[in-house]
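User: Could you write out the 3D structure of this protein bound to 5-amino-5-deoxy-1-O-phosphono-D-mannitol? I've included everything you need below.
Assistant: Certainly. Input first, then the structure.
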Amino acid sequence: MCGIFGYIGKKENAAEIILEGLKRLEYRGYDSWGVAVVPTEDPNKNNKIVVKKRIGKIGDANVDELPTATIGFGHTRWATHGGVTQKNAHPHLDCTKTIALIHNGIIENYDSLKKDLVSTSHRFISETDSEVAVHLIEEYLKKEAFEKSVQKAFLEFHGLNALIALHAREKKLIAVRNGSPLVVGFGNGENYIASDAAALLPHTKDVYFLEDNDMVVVSDTDVELYNVVTGKKKRITKQKLAWDVSSSELGAYPHFMLKEIHEQPGLIVDISISGISSAKKLAGIIKKAYGTYFVGCGTAAYACIAASYLFSKIAKHHINWAVGSEFSYHLDFLTNKSLVVALSQSGETMDILESIKAAKQRGARIASLVNVLGSTLYRESDYPFLIGAGPEKGVASTKAFIAKLSHLILTAYALKGAVSKGSLLLKKTSKAGKQIVTNEYVLKLKKLVQRIKNASDIYVIGRGISYPASLEAALKIKEISYIHAEGLAAGELKHGPLALVEKGTPCIVYAPLDETFGANLAGAMEMRARGGYIIGISPKPHEVFDYYLPIEDVGEASIIPGVMVAQLLAYYLTIEKGYDPDKPRNLAKSVTVK
Ligand code: M6R
Protein backbone atom coordinates (compact mmCIF):
# COMPACT_ATOMS: atom_id res chain seq x y z
CA MET A 1 0.00 0.00 0.00
CA CYS A 2 3.09 2.19 0.22
CA GLY A 3 4.68 4.16 -2.58
CA ILE A 4 8.27 3.37 -3.53
CA PHE A 5 10.54 5.34 -5.87
CA GLY A 6 14.27 4.85 -6.44
CA TYR A 7 16.77 6.59 -8.74
CA ILE A 8 20.32 5.88 -9.84
CA GLY A 9 22.04 7.84 -12.61
CA LYS A 10 24.26 10.80 -13.39
CA LYS A 11 21.96 13.64 -12.37
CA GLU A 12 23.04 15.16 -9.09
CA ASN A 13 19.54 16.16 -7.96
CA ALA A 14 18.51 12.60 -7.07
CA ALA A 15 16.63 13.83 -3.98
CA GLU A 16 14.38 16.10 -6.07
CA ILE A 17 13.78 13.43 -8.70
CA ILE A 18 12.79 11.02 -5.94
CA LEU A 19 10.52 13.55 -4.21
CA GLU A 20 8.74 14.24 -7.51
CA GLY A 21 8.34 10.49 -8.00
CA LEU A 22 6.87 10.18 -4.49
CA LYS A 23 4.42 12.98 -5.17
CA ARG A 24 3.12 10.95 -8.11
CA LEU A 25 2.75 7.95 -5.81
CA GLU A 26 1.31 9.60 -2.76
CA TYR A 27 -2.14 8.18 -3.46
CA ARG A 28 -0.75 4.77 -2.52
CA GLY A 29 -0.15 5.79 1.10
CA TYR A 30 0.08 9.18 2.69
CA ASP A 31 0.54 9.15 6.43
CA SER A 32 4.26 9.92 6.25
CA TRP A 33 7.12 10.01 3.79
CA GLY A 34 10.90 9.93 3.58
CA VAL A 35 13.87 10.17 1.21
CA ALA A 36 17.39 8.74 1.58
CA VAL A 37 20.40 9.66 -0.58
CA VAL A 38 24.09 8.87 -0.67
CA PRO A 39 25.86 12.27 -0.84
CA THR A 40 28.11 12.79 -3.88
CA GLU A 41 30.45 14.93 -1.82
CA ASP A 42 31.53 13.22 1.36
CA PRO A 43 34.05 15.61 2.97
CA ASN A 44 34.24 13.58 6.17
CA LYS A 45 34.65 10.35 4.21
CA ASN A 46 32.26 8.71 6.64
CA ASN A 47 30.00 7.11 4.03
CA LYS A 48 26.84 8.01 5.86
CA ILE A 49 23.46 8.01 4.14
CA VAL A 50 21.42 11.20 4.60
CA VAL A 51 17.70 10.86 5.30
CA LYS A 52 14.76 13.25 5.53
CA LYS A 53 11.46 11.96 6.94
CA ARG A 54 8.25 13.73 7.81
CA ILE A 55 4.77 12.76 8.94
CA GLY A 56 1.70 13.88 6.99
CA LYS A 57 1.13 14.33 3.28
CA ILE A 58 3.95 15.40 1.00
CA GLY A 59 1.96 18.35 -0.36
CA ASP A 60 4.44 21.13 -1.07
CA ALA A 61 7.34 19.53 0.79
CA ASN A 62 10.87 19.97 -0.51
CA VAL A 63 14.19 18.26 -0.02
CA ASP A 64 16.29 21.42 -0.31
CA GLU A 65 18.44 20.50 2.68
CA LEU A 66 19.42 17.12 1.24
CA PRO A 67 22.90 17.01 -0.36
CA THR A 68 23.63 16.51 -4.05
CA ALA A 69 23.44 12.83 -4.89
CA THR A 70 23.10 10.51 -7.87
CA ILE A 71 21.56 7.60 -5.99
CA GLY A 72 18.74 7.25 -3.49
CA PHE A 73 15.14 6.32 -2.87
CA GLY A 74 11.96 7.38 -1.11
CA HIS A 75 8.77 6.01 0.35
CA THR A 76 5.23 7.12 1.19
CA ARG A 77 3.83 5.11 4.08
CA TRP A 78 0.47 3.59 4.93
CA ALA A 79 1.04 2.43 8.49
CA THR A 80 0.67 -1.22 9.44
CA HIS A 81 3.17 -1.94 12.25
CA GLY A 82 3.78 1.07 14.48
CA GLY A 83 1.93 4.39 14.60
CA VAL A 84 2.30 7.35 12.28
CA THR A 85 5.54 8.88 13.58
CA GLN A 86 8.69 10.25 12.01
CA LYS A 87 10.68 7.35 13.46
CA ASN A 88 8.36 4.80 11.89
CA ALA A 89 8.49 6.51 8.48
CA HIS A 90 10.81 4.91 5.89
CA PRO A 91 13.66 4.79 4.85
CA HIS A 92 15.15 2.90 7.79
CA LEU A 93 18.89 2.79 8.48
CA ASP A 94 21.10 0.11 9.99
CA CYS A 95 23.22 0.79 13.10
CA THR A 96 26.14 2.11 11.02
CA LYS A 97 23.92 4.40 8.89
CA THR A 98 25.52 2.99 5.73
CA ILE A 99 22.58 0.79 4.68
CA ALA A 100 19.12 2.19 3.97
CA LEU A 101 15.94 0.32 3.21
CA ILE A 102 12.35 0.92 2.16
CA HIS A 103 9.71 -1.75 2.38
CA ASN A 104 6.13 -2.53 1.40
CA GLY A 105 4.27 -5.51 2.86
CA ILE A 106 4.33 -7.26 6.21
CA ILE A 107 7.24 -9.28 7.59
CA GLU A 108 5.10 -11.71 9.54
CA ASN A 109 7.95 -13.20 11.59
CA TYR A 110 9.53 -9.83 12.40
CA ASP A 111 9.12 -10.37 16.14
CA SER A 112 11.39 -13.39 16.42
CA LEU A 113 13.91 -11.91 13.96
CA LYS A 114 13.99 -8.71 16.02
CA LYS A 115 14.61 -10.58 19.26
CA ASP A 116 17.65 -12.31 17.72
CA LEU A 117 18.98 -9.05 16.30
CA VAL A 118 18.52 -7.16 19.57
CA SER A 119 20.40 -9.94 21.37
CA THR A 120 23.30 -9.42 18.95
CA SER A 121 23.29 -5.71 19.97
CA HIS A 122 21.41 -4.14 17.02
CA ARG A 123 19.76 -0.89 18.07
CA PHE A 124 16.20 -0.38 16.83
CA ILE A 125 14.77 3.11 16.40
CA SER A 126 11.25 2.35 15.11
CA GLU A 127 8.35 0.06 16.00
CA THR A 128 8.07 -1.21 12.43
CA ASP A 129 8.50 -4.70 11.06
CA SER A 130 10.48 -3.12 8.20
CA GLU A 131 13.44 -2.06 10.32
CA VAL A 132 14.20 -5.72 10.98
CA ALA A 133 15.13 -6.07 7.31
CA VAL A 134 17.86 -3.44 7.34
CA HIS A 135 19.48 -4.82 10.51
CA LEU A 136 19.36 -8.35 9.17
CA ILE A 137 21.12 -7.22 5.99
CA GLU A 138 23.70 -5.45 8.20
CA GLU A 139 24.22 -8.70 10.08
CA TYR A 140 24.77 -10.76 6.92
CA LEU A 141 27.05 -8.09 5.52
CA LYS A 142 29.60 -8.96 8.19
CA LYS A 143 30.42 -12.09 6.14
CA GLU A 144 28.80 -11.67 2.72
CA ALA A 145 28.69 -9.31 -0.23
CA PHE A 146 25.82 -6.80 -0.39
CA GLU A 147 23.75 -8.74 -2.97
CA LYS A 148 24.08 -11.98 -1.03
CA SER A 149 23.17 -10.24 2.22
CA VAL A 150 19.97 -8.81 0.77
CA GLN A 151 19.11 -12.18 -0.75
CA LYS A 152 19.73 -14.11 2.47
CA ALA A 153 17.79 -11.62 4.59
CA PHE A 154 14.83 -11.62 2.22
CA LEU A 155 14.63 -15.41 2.27
CA GLU A 156 14.18 -15.31 6.02
CA PHE A 157 11.00 -13.25 5.85
CA HIS A 158 7.55 -14.80 6.09
CA GLY A 159 4.74 -12.98 4.31
CA LEU A 160 4.42 -10.92 1.16
CA ASN A 161 7.00 -8.20 0.77
CA ALA A 162 8.86 -5.87 -1.56
CA LEU A 163 11.91 -3.88 -0.61
CA ILE A 164 14.78 -1.83 -1.95
CA ALA A 165 18.11 -1.56 -0.18
CA LEU A 166 21.14 0.60 -0.86
CA HIS A 167 24.62 0.74 0.63
CA ALA A 168 26.65 3.94 0.88
CA ARG A 169 29.71 2.33 -0.69
CA GLU A 170 27.92 0.47 -3.50
CA LYS A 171 26.67 2.22 -6.60
CA LYS A 172 23.55 0.10 -6.92
CA LEU A 173 19.98 -0.34 -5.76
CA ILE A 174 18.88 -3.85 -4.90
CA ALA A 175 15.18 -4.62 -5.03
CA VAL A 176 13.34 -7.84 -4.26
CA ARG A 177 9.69 -8.70 -4.58
CA ASN A 178 7.41 -11.39 -3.29
CA GLY A 179 3.85 -10.13 -3.35
CA SER A 180 3.96 -6.34 -3.42
CA PRO A 181 4.43 -4.68 -6.82
CA LEU A 182 7.71 -3.25 -8.13
CA VAL A 183 8.64 -2.07 -11.61
CA VAL A 184 12.04 -1.12 -13.05
CA GLY A 185 12.20 1.83 -15.47
CA PHE A 186 15.04 1.90 -18.02
CA GLY A 187 16.54 5.31 -18.81
CA ASN A 188 19.61 6.46 -20.67
CA GLY A 189 22.55 6.26 -18.25
CA GLU A 190 20.02 6.15 -15.42
CA ASN A 191 17.47 3.69 -14.07
CA TYR A 192 14.49 3.76 -11.76
CA ILE A 193 12.47 1.48 -9.51
CA ALA A 194 8.91 2.26 -8.46
CA SER A 195 5.93 0.58 -6.93
CA ASP A 196 3.72 1.86 -9.75
CA ALA A 197 4.54 2.31 -13.43
CA ALA A 198 2.57 5.59 -13.64
CA ALA A 199 5.30 7.23 -11.51
CA LEU A 200 7.87 6.41 -14.20
CA LEU A 201 6.03 8.07 -17.08
CA PRO A 202 7.91 11.41 -17.00
CA HIS A 203 11.21 9.48 -17.29
CA THR A 204 10.65 6.40 -19.43
CA LYS A 205 8.10 4.07 -20.93
CA ASP A 206 10.47 1.06 -21.06
CA VAL A 207 9.80 -1.04 -18.02
CA TYR A 208 10.15 -4.46 -16.45
CA PHE A 209 7.50 -5.58 -13.95
CA LEU A 210 9.13 -7.74 -11.28
CA GLU A 211 7.61 -11.15 -10.75
CA ASP A 212 7.41 -12.87 -7.39
CA ASN A 213 10.88 -13.95 -6.22
CA ASP A 214 12.63 -11.58 -8.62
CA MET A 215 15.65 -9.71 -7.33
CA VAL A 216 17.11 -6.87 -9.42
CA VAL A 217 20.50 -5.26 -9.03
CA VAL A 218 20.21 -1.84 -10.63
CA SER A 219 23.14 0.44 -11.49
CA ASP A 220 23.07 3.56 -13.68
CA THR A 221 23.88 1.61 -16.83
CA ASP A 222 22.75 -1.92 -16.10
CA VAL A 223 19.95 -3.97 -14.62
CA GLU A 224 20.60 -7.60 -13.61
CA LEU A 225 17.76 -9.92 -12.76
CA TYR A 226 17.95 -12.99 -10.51
CA ASN A 227 15.66 -15.50 -8.91
CA VAL A 228 16.04 -14.65 -5.23
CA VAL A 229 15.47 -18.26 -4.14
CA THR A 230 17.90 -20.02 -6.48
CA GLY A 231 20.24 -17.11 -7.15
CA LYS A 232 20.09 -17.97 -10.88
CA LYS A 233 20.28 -15.14 -13.42
CA LYS A 234 17.13 -14.49 -15.50
CA ARG A 235 16.49 -12.78 -18.83
CA ILE A 236 14.72 -9.43 -18.69
CA THR A 237 11.75 -8.98 -21.03
CA LYS A 238 11.00 -5.27 -21.24
CA GLN A 239 7.52 -3.90 -21.82
CA LYS A 240 6.44 -0.56 -23.24
CA LEU A 241 3.94 1.56 -21.31
CA ALA A 242 1.07 2.82 -23.45
CA TRP A 243 -0.05 5.64 -21.11
CA ASP A 244 0.78 9.32 -21.75
CA VAL A 245 2.49 11.47 -19.14
CA SER A 246 -0.48 13.87 -19.22
CA SER A 247 -2.84 11.03 -18.31
CA SER A 248 -1.28 10.88 -14.87
CA GLU A 249 -1.18 14.64 -14.31
CA LEU A 250 -3.83 16.95 -12.91
CA GLY A 251 -3.84 19.46 -15.76
CA ALA A 252 -6.39 22.19 -15.05
CA TYR A 253 -8.37 20.13 -12.52
CA PRO A 254 -8.11 20.75 -8.77
CA HIS A 255 -8.30 17.02 -7.96
CA PHE A 256 -7.66 13.72 -9.72
CA MET A 257 -11.12 12.50 -8.74
CA LEU A 258 -12.79 15.35 -10.63
CA LYS A 259 -10.49 14.84 -13.62
CA GLU A 260 -11.25 11.14 -13.66
CA ILE A 261 -15.02 11.73 -13.45
CA HIS A 262 -14.79 14.11 -16.40
CA GLU A 263 -12.82 11.60 -18.46
CA GLN A 264 -15.64 9.06 -18.26
CA PRO A 265 -17.84 10.08 -21.24
CA GLY A 266 -14.78 9.91 -23.54
CA LEU A 267 -13.74 6.60 -22.06
CA ILE A 268 -17.15 5.01 -22.63
CA VAL A 269 -17.13 5.97 -26.29
CA ASP A 270 -13.56 4.62 -26.68
CA ILE A 271 -14.59 1.31 -25.15
CA SER A 272 -17.66 1.12 -27.39
CA ILE A 273 -15.19 0.63 -30.27
CA SER A 274 -11.92 -0.65 -28.83
CA GLY A 275 -13.67 -3.06 -26.44
CA ILE A 276 -15.54 -5.05 -29.08
CA SER A 277 -12.92 -7.68 -29.80
CA SER A 278 -12.10 -8.37 -26.15
CA ALA A 279 -15.83 -8.49 -25.33
CA LYS A 280 -16.27 -11.18 -27.99
CA LYS A 281 -13.30 -13.14 -26.65
CA LEU A 282 -14.44 -12.95 -23.05
CA ALA A 283 -17.99 -13.88 -24.05
CA GLY A 284 -16.60 -16.96 -25.83
CA ILE A 285 -14.64 -17.98 -22.71
CA ILE A 286 -17.69 -17.50 -20.49
CA LYS A 287 -19.85 -19.51 -22.89
CA LYS A 288 -17.49 -22.49 -22.71
CA ALA A 289 -17.11 -22.42 -18.92
CA TYR A 290 -19.08 -24.65 -16.63
CA GLY A 291 -19.96 -22.02 -14.05
CA THR A 292 -18.54 -18.49 -13.91
CA TYR A 293 -17.66 -16.56 -10.78
CA PHE A 294 -16.98 -12.79 -10.80
CA VAL A 295 -14.83 -11.51 -7.92
CA GLY A 296 -13.72 -8.04 -6.89
CA CYS A 297 -13.29 -5.85 -3.82
CA GLY A 298 -14.95 -2.55 -2.92
CA THR A 299 -16.07 -0.74 -6.05
CA ALA A 300 -14.90 -3.65 -8.19
CA ALA A 301 -17.16 -5.98 -6.16
CA TYR A 302 -20.11 -3.74 -7.01
CA ALA A 303 -19.20 -4.03 -10.67
CA CYS A 304 -19.38 -7.82 -10.18
CA ILE A 305 -22.90 -7.53 -8.74
CA ALA A 306 -23.84 -5.29 -11.67
CA ALA A 307 -22.43 -7.97 -14.00
CA SER A 308 -24.81 -10.55 -12.54
CA TYR A 309 -27.81 -8.34 -13.44
CA LEU A 310 -26.44 -7.37 -16.86
CA PHE A 311 -25.65 -10.93 -17.89
CA SER A 312 -29.01 -12.15 -16.68
CA LYS A 313 -31.00 -9.42 -18.34
CA ILE A 314 -29.12 -8.96 -21.60
CA ALA A 315 -27.68 -12.43 -22.25
CA LYS A 316 -30.00 -14.60 -20.10
CA HIS A 317 -26.83 -16.07 -18.65
CA HIS A 318 -26.26 -16.87 -14.98
CA ILE A 319 -23.06 -15.85 -13.27
CA ASN A 320 -22.07 -15.92 -9.58
CA TRP A 321 -20.27 -13.16 -7.76
CA ALA A 322 -18.34 -12.81 -4.52
CA VAL A 323 -16.25 -10.20 -2.74
CA GLY A 324 -12.58 -11.08 -2.87
CA SER A 325 -12.11 -11.45 0.89
CA GLU A 326 -15.01 -13.95 1.11
CA PHE A 327 -14.36 -15.94 -2.03
CA SER A 328 -12.00 -18.43 -0.44
CA TYR A 329 -14.83 -19.52 1.91
CA HIS A 330 -17.13 -20.66 -0.85
CA LEU A 331 -15.04 -21.91 -3.70
CA ASP A 332 -14.90 -25.55 -2.70
CA PHE A 333 -17.02 -26.63 -5.65
CA LEU A 334 -14.76 -25.05 -8.29
CA THR A 335 -13.41 -27.53 -10.83
CA ASN A 336 -11.15 -27.41 -13.84
CA LYS A 337 -14.18 -26.41 -15.91
CA SER A 338 -14.95 -23.36 -13.78
CA LEU A 339 -14.09 -19.82 -14.78
CA VAL A 340 -13.23 -17.02 -12.36
CA VAL A 341 -13.37 -13.48 -13.72
CA ALA A 342 -11.44 -11.12 -11.44
CA LEU A 343 -12.16 -7.38 -11.64
CA SER A 344 -9.55 -4.95 -10.37
CA GLN A 345 -8.29 -1.49 -11.17
CA SER A 346 -4.82 -1.97 -9.70
CA GLY A 347 -4.42 -5.68 -10.31
CA GLU A 348 -2.60 -5.78 -6.97
CA THR A 349 -5.43 -6.17 -4.45
CA MET A 350 -4.28 -8.91 -2.13
CA ASP A 351 -7.73 -10.39 -1.51
CA ILE A 352 -8.13 -10.84 -5.26
CA LEU A 353 -4.69 -12.32 -5.76
CA GLU A 354 -5.31 -14.82 -2.96
CA SER A 355 -8.71 -15.66 -4.43
CA ILE A 356 -7.33 -16.48 -7.84
CA LYS A 357 -4.52 -18.49 -6.29
CA ALA A 358 -7.04 -20.62 -4.42
CA ALA A 359 -9.20 -20.95 -7.54
CA LYS A 360 -6.19 -22.03 -9.61
CA GLN A 361 -5.35 -24.70 -7.05
CA ARG A 362 -8.76 -26.19 -7.83
CA GLY A 363 -7.99 -26.10 -11.54
CA ALA A 364 -10.24 -23.16 -12.43
CA ARG A 365 -9.25 -20.85 -15.28
CA ILE A 366 -8.79 -17.16 -14.54
CA ALA A 367 -9.90 -14.24 -16.69
CA SER A 368 -9.50 -10.66 -15.54
CA LEU A 369 -10.67 -7.16 -16.35
CA VAL A 370 -7.79 -5.09 -15.04
CA ASN A 371 -6.49 -1.57 -15.56
CA VAL A 372 -2.77 -1.92 -14.93
CA LEU A 373 -0.64 -3.64 -17.54
CA GLY A 374 1.95 -5.94 -15.98
CA SER A 375 0.19 -5.99 -12.61
CA THR A 376 0.20 -9.27 -10.72
CA LEU A 377 -3.41 -10.04 -11.64
CA TYR A 378 -2.68 -9.27 -15.28
CA ARG A 379 0.23 -11.69 -15.27
CA GLU A 380 -1.42 -14.42 -13.24
CA SER A 381 -4.54 -14.55 -15.42
CA ASP A 382 -5.02 -17.10 -18.16
CA TYR A 383 -7.08 -14.51 -20.05
CA PRO A 384 -6.14 -10.96 -19.04
CA PHE A 385 -8.18 -8.09 -20.54
CA LEU A 386 -7.15 -4.47 -20.04
CA ILE A 387 -10.01 -2.07 -19.32
CA GLY A 388 -7.99 0.86 -20.75
CA ALA A 389 -9.11 3.50 -18.24
CA GLY A 390 -5.63 5.09 -18.03
CA PRO A 391 -4.01 5.90 -14.67
CA GLU A 392 -6.57 6.29 -11.88
CA LYS A 393 -5.10 8.23 -8.97
CA GLY A 394 -8.07 9.29 -6.85
CA VAL A 395 -8.39 6.79 -4.02
CA ALA A 396 -12.12 6.74 -4.73
CA SER A 397 -12.43 4.61 -7.83
CA THR A 398 -14.55 6.27 -10.53
CA LYS A 399 -13.45 5.81 -14.12
CA ALA A 400 -12.23 2.26 -13.53
CA PHE A 401 -15.77 1.37 -12.36
CA ILE A 402 -17.38 2.96 -15.40
CA ALA A 403 -14.82 1.31 -17.70
CA LYS A 404 -15.54 -2.10 -16.15
CA LEU A 405 -19.30 -1.57 -16.55
CA SER A 406 -18.81 -0.55 -20.19
CA HIS A 407 -16.81 -3.73 -20.90
CA LEU A 408 -19.38 -5.82 -19.05
CA ILE A 409 -22.27 -4.36 -21.05
CA LEU A 410 -20.41 -5.08 -24.30
CA THR A 411 -19.55 -8.61 -23.14
CA ALA A 412 -23.17 -9.33 -22.17
CA TYR A 413 -24.26 -8.18 -25.61
CA ALA A 414 -21.50 -10.24 -27.24
CA LEU A 415 -22.76 -13.26 -25.31
CA LYS A 416 -26.17 -12.60 -26.78
CA GLY A 417 -24.60 -12.34 -30.24
CA ALA A 418 -25.47 -8.63 -30.53
CA VAL A 419 -22.23 -6.82 -29.75
CA SER A 420 -22.99 -3.95 -32.17
CA LYS A 421 -26.16 -3.20 -30.24
CA GLY A 422 -24.05 -2.99 -27.06
CA SER A 423 -21.62 -0.68 -28.83
CA LEU A 424 -24.45 1.65 -29.91
CA LEU A 425 -25.87 1.67 -26.40
CA LEU A 426 -22.50 2.73 -25.01
CA LYS A 427 -22.29 5.62 -27.49
CA LYS A 428 -25.69 6.81 -26.28
CA THR A 429 -24.54 6.35 -22.68
CA SER A 430 -21.48 8.50 -23.31
CA LYS A 431 -23.80 11.34 -24.39
CA ALA A 432 -25.89 10.82 -21.26
CA GLY A 433 -22.70 11.04 -19.19
CA LYS A 434 -21.68 14.31 -20.89
CA GLN A 435 -24.87 15.96 -19.65
CA ILE A 436 -23.87 15.25 -16.06
CA VAL A 437 -20.45 16.88 -16.18
CA THR A 438 -21.87 20.24 -17.34
CA ASN A 439 -21.72 23.44 -15.27
CA GLU A 440 -25.48 23.56 -15.15
CA TYR A 441 -25.69 20.09 -13.61
CA VAL A 442 -22.92 20.87 -11.14
CA LEU A 443 -24.90 23.92 -9.92
CA LYS A 444 -27.84 21.65 -9.26
CA LEU A 445 -25.61 19.31 -7.25
CA LYS A 446 -24.02 22.15 -5.30
CA LYS A 447 -27.47 23.38 -4.28
CA LEU A 448 -28.29 19.90 -3.02
CA VAL A 449 -24.98 19.76 -1.15
CA GLN A 450 -26.03 22.85 0.85
CA ARG A 451 -29.23 21.05 1.81
CA ILE A 452 -27.65 17.76 2.96
CA LYS A 453 -24.07 18.59 4.01
CA ASN A 454 -24.78 18.37 7.75
CA ALA A 455 -26.61 15.06 7.59
CA SER A 456 -25.19 12.30 9.75
CA ASP A 457 -26.64 9.52 7.57
CA ILE A 458 -27.66 9.12 3.96
CA TYR A 459 -29.57 6.12 2.60
CA VAL A 460 -29.49 5.10 -1.04
CA ILE A 461 -32.00 2.63 -2.47
CA GLY A 462 -32.53 0.85 -5.77
CA ARG A 463 -33.77 -2.43 -7.18
CA GLY A 464 -32.32 -4.64 -9.89
CA ILE A 465 -29.18 -3.14 -11.33
CA SER A 466 -29.85 0.00 -9.27
CA TYR A 467 -29.01 -2.10 -6.20
CA PRO A 468 -25.25 -2.19 -7.02
CA ALA A 469 -25.61 1.46 -8.10
CA SER A 470 -26.90 2.23 -4.58
CA LEU A 471 -24.02 0.37 -2.97
CA GLU A 472 -21.51 2.24 -5.11
CA ALA A 473 -23.16 5.63 -4.51
CA ALA A 474 -23.06 5.04 -0.75
CA LEU A 475 -19.43 3.92 -0.89
CA LYS A 476 -18.40 7.06 -2.79
CA ILE A 477 -20.20 9.30 -0.30
CA LYS A 478 -18.86 7.65 2.85
CA GLU A 479 -15.26 7.09 1.83
CA ILE A 480 -14.52 10.71 0.94
CA SER A 481 -17.09 12.93 2.74
CA TYR A 482 -17.09 10.78 5.91
CA ILE A 483 -20.89 10.98 6.09
CA HIS A 484 -22.29 7.60 6.99
CA ALA A 485 -24.06 6.30 3.88
CA GLU A 486 -25.75 2.97 3.28
CA GLY A 487 -26.76 1.44 -0.02
CA LEU A 488 -29.76 -0.86 0.12
CA ALA A 489 -31.87 -3.09 -2.05
CA ALA A 490 -35.07 -1.04 -1.91
CA GLY A 491 -37.11 -4.10 -1.00
CA GLU A 492 -35.05 -4.54 2.18
CA LEU A 493 -36.11 -1.18 3.61
CA LYS A 494 -39.08 -2.50 5.51
CA HIS A 495 -37.07 -5.43 6.84
CA GLY A 496 -35.18 -3.13 9.17
CA PRO A 497 -33.41 -0.02 7.81
CA LEU A 498 -36.63 2.01 7.59
CA ALA A 499 -36.44 2.31 11.38
CA LEU A 500 -33.53 4.73 10.89
CA VAL A 501 -35.29 7.19 8.60
CA GLU A 502 -36.26 10.35 10.49
CA LYS A 503 -37.48 13.81 9.61
CA GLY A 504 -35.00 15.28 7.13
CA THR A 505 -32.86 12.14 6.57
CA PRO A 506 -31.52 12.37 2.99
CA CYS A 507 -32.69 9.33 1.01
CA ILE A 508 -31.40 8.89 -2.53
CA VAL A 509 -33.71 6.86 -4.76
CA TYR A 510 -32.64 5.35 -8.07
CA ALA A 511 -35.63 5.05 -10.37
CA PRO A 512 -34.60 4.07 -13.91
CA LEU A 513 -37.38 3.49 -16.42
CA ASP A 514 -37.29 -0.30 -16.22
CA GLU A 515 -39.44 -2.86 -14.47
CA THR A 516 -38.22 -1.55 -11.09
CA PHE A 517 -39.59 2.00 -11.55
CA GLY A 518 -42.84 1.58 -9.63
CA ALA A 519 -41.32 -0.46 -6.81
CA ASN A 520 -38.49 2.04 -6.36
CA LEU A 521 -41.04 4.84 -6.07
CA ALA A 522 -42.92 2.79 -3.49
CA GLY A 523 -39.70 2.65 -1.45
CA ALA A 524 -39.40 6.42 -1.82
CA MET A 525 -42.96 6.87 -0.55
CA GLU A 526 -42.24 4.68 2.48
CA MET A 527 -39.24 6.81 3.38
CA ARG A 528 -41.07 10.06 2.74
CA ALA A 529 -43.90 8.97 5.00
CA ARG A 530 -41.30 8.78 7.81
CA GLY A 531 -40.02 12.30 7.08
CA GLY A 532 -37.20 11.33 4.70
CA TYR A 533 -35.90 13.97 2.28
CA ILE A 534 -36.20 12.21 -1.07
CA ILE A 535 -33.59 12.79 -3.78
CA GLY A 536 -34.66 11.11 -7.00
CA ILE A 537 -32.17 10.08 -9.68
CA SER A 538 -34.35 9.16 -12.63
CA PRO A 539 -35.14 9.98 -16.25
CA LYS A 540 -38.64 11.00 -15.08
CA PRO A 541 -39.60 13.51 -12.37
CA HIS A 542 -42.13 12.45 -9.74
CA GLU A 543 -44.03 14.22 -6.98
CA VAL A 544 -42.42 12.05 -4.31
CA PHE A 545 -39.01 13.58 -5.08
CA ASP A 546 -38.13 16.55 -2.87
CA TYR A 547 -35.08 17.07 -5.06
CA TYR A 548 -34.83 15.80 -8.61
CA LEU A 549 -31.59 14.87 -10.40
CA PRO A 550 -32.41 13.97 -13.99
CA ILE A 551 -30.52 11.36 -16.02
CA GLU A 552 -31.16 10.21 -19.55
CA ASP A 553 -32.80 6.85 -20.09
CA VAL A 554 -30.15 4.56 -21.58
CA GLY A 555 -31.83 1.24 -20.89
CA GLU A 556 -29.61 -1.41 -19.30
CA ALA A 557 -26.74 1.09 -19.18
CA SER A 558 -28.64 3.57 -16.97
CA ILE A 559 -26.46 2.53 -14.04
CA ILE A 560 -23.64 4.52 -15.67
CA PRO A 561 -25.18 8.03 -15.62
CA GLY A 562 -26.84 7.13 -12.32
CA VAL A 563 -23.51 6.39 -10.63
CA MET A 564 -21.84 9.39 -12.27
CA VAL A 565 -24.36 11.66 -10.51
CA ALA A 566 -23.46 10.06 -7.17
CA GLN A 567 -19.71 10.40 -7.86
CA LEU A 568 -20.07 14.13 -8.43
CA LEU A 569 -22.40 14.55 -5.46
CA ALA A 570 -19.84 12.79 -3.23
CA TYR A 571 -17.07 14.98 -4.66
CA TYR A 572 -18.86 18.29 -4.01
CA LEU A 573 -20.02 17.19 -0.54
CA THR A 574 -16.39 16.48 0.28
CA ILE A 575 -15.18 19.82 -1.05
CA GLU A 576 -17.89 21.62 0.92
CA LYS A 577 -16.79 19.85 4.09
CA GLY A 578 -13.19 20.83 3.45
CA TYR A 579 -11.71 17.36 2.96
CA ASP A 580 -9.30 16.10 0.31
CA PRO A 581 -11.29 13.80 -2.02
CA ASP A 582 -8.13 12.30 -3.53
CA LYS A 583 -6.67 11.13 -0.24
CA PRO A 584 -9.38 10.11 2.22
CA ARG A 585 -8.26 9.30 5.75
CA ASN A 586 -7.20 5.74 6.64
CA LEU A 587 -7.34 4.52 3.03
CA ALA A 588 -4.87 3.84 0.23
CA LYS A 589 -5.32 3.30 -3.47
CA SER A 590 -3.89 -0.13 -3.79
CA VAL A 591 -4.74 -2.57 -0.99
CA THR A 592 -1.80 -4.95 -1.06
CA VAL A 593 -2.30 -6.42 2.42
CA LYS A 594 -4.99 -8.82 3.67
O1 M6R B 1 -7.59 -1.93 -7.40
P1 M6R B 1 -8.90 -2.62 -7.12
O2 M6R B 1 -9.96 -2.30 -8.13
O3 M6R B 1 -8.75 -4.10 -6.94
O4 M6R B 1 -9.38 -2.01 -5.73
C1 M6R B 1 -10.49 -2.52 -5.06
C2 M6R B 1 -10.92 -1.63 -3.93
O5 M6R B 1 -9.89 -1.49 -2.99
C3 M6R B 1 -11.33 -0.23 -4.41
O6 M6R B 1 -12.34 -0.29 -5.37
C4 M6R B 1 -11.80 0.62 -3.23
O7 M6R B 1 -12.99 0.11 -2.71
C5 M6R B 1 -11.98 2.09 -3.63
N1 M6R B 1 -11.48 2.93 -2.59
C6 M6R B 1 -13.40 2.45 -3.86
O8 M6R B 1 -13.57 3.76 -4.27
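The chain has 17 helices and 25 strands.
User: Perfect, thank you.
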